[in-house]
Amino acid sequence: MSHPFHSIYTHGFIRAAVCLPTLRVADPVFNTRRTLDLARKASESRAAVALFPEMGLSAYSNEDLFHQEALLSVTASALLQVVEGSRSLSPLLIVGAPLRFEGKLFNCAVVIYRGRILGVVPKTYLPNYREFYEKRQFTSGMNAVSREVRLMGHTVPFGADLIFEADNFPGFCLAVEICEDVWTPIPPSTYTALAGATVLANLSASNITVGKADYRRNLCAVQSGRCLAAYLYSAAGPGESTTDLAWDGYALIYENNELLAQSERFSDTEQIVLADIDLELLVQERMRTTSFNDAVGVHRDRLAGIRRIPFDFAVPTGDIPLIRRVERFPFVPSEADKCDERCYEAYNIQVHGLMKRLAASGIDRVVIGVSGGLDSTQALIVAARTMDRLGLPRKNILAYTMPGFATSRATHENALRLMAALAVSAAELDIRPSAMQMMRDIDHPFARNQPVYDVTFENVQAGERTSHLFRLANLHHALVLGTGDLSELALGWATYGVGDHMSHYNVNASVPKTLIQHLIRWVVETRQFDDETGEVLTAVLNTEISPELIPAGAENAEQPAQRTEEKIGPYELQDFNLFYITRYGFAPSKVAFLAHHAWSDAGRGRWSDLIPPQKRHQYDLSEIRKWLDLFVYRFFKISQFKRSAVPNGPKVGSGGSLSPRGDWRAPSDAEAVVWQNELREKVPDIY
Q1: What average pLDDT does the chain have?
Q2: Are 401 and 416 in contact, with CB atoms under 8 Å apart?
Q3: Residue 238, phi-psi category: left (phi > 0), alpha (psi -120 to 50), beta (remainder)
Q4: Which candidate in 108, 123, 464, 590 is catalytic?
Q5: Could you say which of 19, 173, 179, 220 is catalytic?
Q6: N or C: which end of the chain has fewer CB within 10 A?
């Protein structure tokens, strides 16, 4: 069955529910009603999996009541009711119950799907220290003899070595462990994750003590990160006995160390938390993380014994919007404290990269062309801070503004003011005479007073600027500092070779345009330089992004005539596309789905405080599709040859770099048709 574009299940997501029902101690009938009620709510939310707390059908805190026949018998009957009640529900249910097999009592998780028990997972590690006395009542799953048990008239798999795998939904592979299991040095979920489980579920009771909540969060976060998996956690909530203990009722959903959802703690009402898990992201991460797969090889013999329990997943139908938060700017967090940390790190990575290159080369000067635009501004303030850190005068920065045929008064003034504010060695070098000489040499029509502004006209200017910078570097024993950014490399928006593509060292090489904008705003907000410099930086941020290679009429010379984003798309969208295509290898249709969720409504979600209100844009699906189509064409088809020969520069963010010595190696003569066709076939053209 095909699924609509606007459904999470079309794009490799599943919805997970972690449920915290109100319960009564030793009252399975009541507990079953509450369990089924939350299970129905999870189903109404079109969840694929719903997790409940440890021993949720009987309550966890029964102590020696677990040895009472009446309680065990009624719990078994309650389990049957849950199984029967699951027949019409969408999620796979994971409920906890005390169950007897082999003359032993086990603390069990029962995995149920549409009227069928898929398997039973016993708790492996029983705590028997401090306030815990589980070995008084229960037997560890390690001491079970059988790998299958009879339950409700059926033979079902039994053990901690089970993976429940949806045959018809790639990546939906679930494994279960119980409470204490994750507190051990090597949790059972480590092995099931290595064997392929992407969703790890933990039924827990977990009483609360001061400080314990942070430790539980860390356990779940780290286990999800180390296992490259989702981790669902459900701790017992209202109703457990408080004879000697207290319970905070805590639900957590993590994905690869990222917190997706959590419940309110100490609530006096039952709760259900939902999150959409990106299974495709997890599969992609495992595929490319060689150390994860090396660990599989180390434990191959044990992993070969893990059993897979197949089931046919009835995928929820219809439009199912994403409830997950998707950052508009994936290279920059929207939270103020995280954004501050990210900008601090990125800026200092750039500075330290340049410090090392200067120290290693024995050169203490840099040459830089300053256009008055974003990229050269960022490179210049990095160079200024580098000189400060090395104890060198800023006069060692030989900065040149190099006006051409299309330089506007606004950018020219920005460049002059910035160089003066930073107290660098500033000079102006007019490239028009040398550019005109080259055009005469090659017999370009412009040299014959014809207004021909073709790619040759543009590249002659870019080439003249770069040629002058390299010869100035030779003359002054300096390094040419590159200014081009990651976004331009992705889109091929650079003049190859003797042009802005080339330098001796490029501090912006793996910094996308949107991060540069944030970095400059951060530099202003945190007062890294004086007020005068801050004013100029703000002016640069407010200037149109333009290559300034095609002249406007004299009456329009105040501002740049060209608008880069009208040609290659909004950088905020193209950086979004760049991140998800290179970082995770997502198909264009999925990138479009995520972009639509992030960008379709400017009033939804969180914006970074560094983005002024007038810059908070939104895009409909048609616009997203248009610019993504252009992105995949330029990225895969026409731009790789430029990325195959880029100068050195430091990798800055987890989004990667496009250096052939780093994160990206690709042929220069590939086709883009696979990506374009996928986009055009799967994303509606009109929304």
Answers
A1: 95
A2: yes
A3: beta
A4: 123
A5: 179
A6: N
